[in-house]
Amino acid sequence: LLLKINASLNMVSLPDVRLLFQTHSIEEINVIEKKIRGEIEKKKDDLRIMVGERYRDLINAADTIKDMESESSQVFGGIKNIQNLCLSFHTSLMSSCSSKITQSPRDVAFYSLATQMDLLVNTPEKIWNALDNHEYLNATQLYMFSHHIVNKSLNILVNDPKPSNSQDVYASFPVLHHQWAAISHFKTSILKGAEYSLKDKTLPDKKLCESLCSLALLDNCSPRQVFATLLLARK
């Protein structure tokens, strides 16, 4: 019976449907009708689902476009704010430069000394952090920078008298003469840490180069001496 009904469904597409009534009973025609109506409803459901998905995609696309518009507006607003800040910074910088021109040499020396003192006060903590993280080259740079400030800029290590016009400025910061004592002992710690790190055969190449550079800078070693130290540590 099923084979007969399926064959009859294929005949539905023919112009002459009277053959169904000629070749099938009423019960068979009712079954065929139900099956055809079921397929029609299924096609309708498929069409609704397809249209719904397309409509949902359209809504999502519209929401995305709206979000893009909002984000673009925020970006343009941020760029505008940056431009305004740059203009304001340029104006304040020009004003600051104009005011610095009128500063006396004593004021310039005072602010320069205050800035260098601030660097020296913060250097020990930075060197400690670098040593804790095994960043020996960074610690070396901080040490040498402090040494340059003390020995070349402030002349604390030199016994030459200070210029008479800045004696009162140096007298205002007696801590400067003691700050180098808190920094100078780091040289030994950095050298020991760098030399000890050379014994680690799993040390990355970058860290190895940093340790070698630290030894070369602090001990004023030649490349031959540095590599000799490396070979001795790796024995």
From TrEMBL:
It is found in: Golgi apparatus membrane. InterPro entries: COG1 (IPR033370). The keyword Transport applies. The keyword Cell division does not apply. It holds the Pfam family VPS51_Exo84_N. Transmembrane segments: none annotated. Belongs to the COG1 family. This is Conserved oligomeric Golgi complex subunit 1. The gene is COG1.
